[in-house]
Design goal:
Layout (H helix, E strand, L loop, with lengths): L12 E6 L6 E7 L2 E6 L4 E3 H39 L3 H33 L12 H13 L1
Antiparallel strand pairs: 1-2, 2-3, 3-4
Helix pairs in contact: 1-2
């Protein structure tokens, strides 16, 4: 049962990690060869269960990011149509270009997620991301724009 007294802190040394369930700080305690992570509310994890929880959280965040990228592309296209109907050609062009760039990012992220799903189902399906992939190219594009 989770703790209710905020001054009743777990045993061990505080870590830079956060609890996957509540986001609170985690303390690390060792019992023999076993490492245990506990947050101030009482959620407990072994090292393996922490990895599993983190994997789940990362995957959920990536799927959320993919959804937002797709929504952003749709919104940019809607803004381009409005700019077109208002005779703002430069804005229309910029919105279309931004939508295209966001779609490329969504495609890369979607591919990574699909590859991860296949790899989880079949470890032999794992393959590295090529150095000349769209992800690498878009990172280089961002660096050039920042200069």
């Amino acid at each position: 049962m989770p703790k209710t007294d905020p001054h009743d802190l777990p045993e061990g040394k505080i870590t830079p990690f956060t609890c996957p369930e509540c986001g609170g700080s985690l303390w690390k305690a060792r019992t023999g060869n076993m490492v245990r992570y506990t947050c101030h509310t009482g959620h407990k994890y072994s090292a393996q269960s922490m990895l599993n929880a983190q994997n789940s959280e990362v995957e959920a965040a990536l799927w959320t990011a993919l959804r937002f990228l797709k929504e952003r592309a749709l919104l940019l296209e809607e803004m381009a149509r409005k700019a077109s109907s208002s005779k703002y050609a430069l804005s229309e062009k910029n919105f279309h270009e931004q939508a295209q760039e966001v779609r490329k990012h969504a495609e890369v992220l979607g591919q990574i997620l699909q590859d991860g799903t296949r790899a989880a189902e079949n470890p032999a399906a794992r393959k590295p991301i090529p150095k000349n992939s769209a992800a690498t190219k878009s990172a280089a594009t961002r660096r050039r724009r920042q200069k």
